Amino acid sequence: MSKPKVLFVCLGNICRSPTAEAVFRHKARLAGLDVEIDSAGTGGWHRGELPDERAREAGTRRGYSFAGQTARPVEQDDFEIFDFILAMDRRNRAELLSKAPENARHKVKLFLEYGTSSEAEVPDPYYGGARGFEHVLDLIEDAGDGLIRTLQQSP
Question: In total, how many domains does the chain have?
Answer without folding.
Answer: 1
